[in-house]
Every structure is written in C-alpha cells, then in structure tokens.
Amino acid sequence: MYKVMIVEDEELVRRGISLLTHWDQFDMKLIGEAKNGAEGLEMALKFRPDIILTDIRMPVLSGIDMIDTIQKTYSPAFIILSAYSDFDYAKKALKMKVSDYLVKPFSDKDLEESLKNAIETIVESRNRQVISQKLESISNSTLATFNQYLSQHHTSKNTNLDKVLNIIHHRFSDNLSLKQIGEELLVSESYLSKLFKEESGYTFHDYLIQYRMKKACDFLSDNQIKIYEVADKIGFKDQRYFSVIFRKYVGMTPMQFKEKLVVKKNDK
Predict the structure, then answer these.
(1) Considering only CA atoms, which of 139, 181, 178, 164 is closest in space to residue 155?
(2) Closest C-alpha to 149, from 136, 164, 137, 138
(3) What is the DSSP letter of 102?
(4) Domains of the chain with CATH codes
(5) Cβ distance 56 to 89 under 8 Å?
(6) pLDDT tens column, 122-178
C-alpha cells in the first residue's frame, strides 16, 4: 500500500482531496495533512510517504523549498498543486523531477490520473533501485575475482601463459580455442590447459568468457551502440545467446545494464 501526504495551505482544497478521494481504489493510505511547507517537511521526513501532493505557494516554507530539502534525503513521487498564475513557478518544480502537476481548480478525474502517474513513477524508481543494486553487486560477483587476470598488464612467471593472455586480450572476439593457440605456440593443448588452471585457478574457457563480459560492459557504456553490435564485437553471433550469458555473469540483461548507465549519467 502506498502512503500519501497532502501539503496545502487552503483548508478547503486540502480537506476536499482528503475526504473525497477513494484512496483504497489506488491501494493508497492517507497518512497525514500539513498546512504549510515546514509542517510538510517535518512530517515527510518522519513518516516518509511514497506520494506527496503539495501546493507551491505556502507560508513559512514554499513547496519548492520543501521538495528540494526532501529530495536530499529520499525521493517520493510529488504531485504539484498550483494556481494557473503560478505556472512559471510550477515549471521550476517540473525540473525537480516531480511526477505531475495539477492546475487549480482540477477535477476528480485529473487527480485520479495524477495518482496513477505517481504510482508509475514509484514503480519505475523501485525498478531502477533493483537494477542499481544488481549493478553494484557486480563488484562482489565472479567478475571481481578475475580482476588480477583481466588486466592487460598481467604478467606471469611463465612465458607461455603470458602469450595466451595476450592473445585473449587482443583477439577476444575471435573464435579462440586452446587447441588453436597451442598450435600457434607450438605446445600441446593439454599442457596449456593444465598451466592455465594451475596459475589462475580458472579454466581457459571461463577466463575468456569473463574477459568478454568485461569488454561488453565497456562497450555498453556507449549510448550509440546497439546490443547486437556489442555481441558481435565480443565474438557472439547470436544476440539472444549473448544476453543469456551476460545475465548469467553480470546479474542483469545487457539492456538493463545499458539503461542503468543512462540513469546514472542523468542523475549526475
């Protein structure tokens, strides 16, 4: 259930919204009302409502200042209530990523649509948080355990292993195999397999896939590049198979990863 708060200095408007809105219909619960921004700020920080309907021009503390202060602590969905003459002022609120705004007097239908928009905003925000958490968890995933080996500056006491790593780092998009590399280095496949496992703790195939996933993350940071182009760049001809493998190692799909990067850039 979504918690809702109303911050409005006009008692008639405030009480009208409070009493005439069918909160249960939207899986909502009205948890409080405030008659100015200062009261609204105190109540919001205490109860952390999911949705805040607020006027802009209010005594003691304006709606704009209240929103700005609240957003420094957490990010509820805001619905602005403003008089038509305050539209220029309302545009400032829109730049603060509020969910919606209503021009007084507004109809019940307008309010209902705004409440639906607020729910969509909350759901989207929560989904982004989940993706963000997954993205952050990459540092603790199997990808992180390869850090010492994913560096192009990795060196080994064994010259043959260095050569294998160098081939992977420069030809990761090729259809590489230990047999092929062994033939190039004039050593046996079984020898390289044992050497790789003993020195790194991982198989050649695991290392190659992990390195490709690392490069995929690098490529996905480019907003202009397409998912299928990334797949091709790292040696996957089938985009769907690439997505499956990427999700297995990274914890999310390439599209989710890409969208998360866009969100992080926009939030800066």
Answers:
(1) 164
(2) 164
(3) E
(4) 2-130 (3.40.50.2300), 141-267 (1.10.10.60)
(5) yes
(6) 887 777 676 556 555 544 454 454 444 444 444 555 788 888 888 998 999 999 999
Read off the tokens for 35: 């008659």
In sequence order, what DSSP letters do the residues of 174-204 get, joined into one string? Answer: S---HHHHHHHHTS-HHHHHHHHHHHHSS-H
State the DSSP H helix or E strand holding residue 63, giving kind and residue range, or none if neither: helix 63-71
Strands (E), the chain: 2-7, 28-34, 51-55, 77-83, 100-104
Mention every residue, 6+ apart, whose C-beta is less than 8 A from residue 163. 185
Residue 217 neighbours by CB under 8 Å, 6+ apart: 250, 257
Q: How far apart are CA 111 and CA 132, in angstroms?
A: 31
Q: Exposed, middle or buried, 259 (CB in 10 Å: 0-12/13-18/19+)?
A: middle
CB 36 within 8 A of CB 74: no
The percent helix, strand, coil of the chain (3-state, each to 5) is 65, 10, 25
Higher pLDDT, 96 or 177: 177
Bridge partners (DSSP) listed for residue 170? none
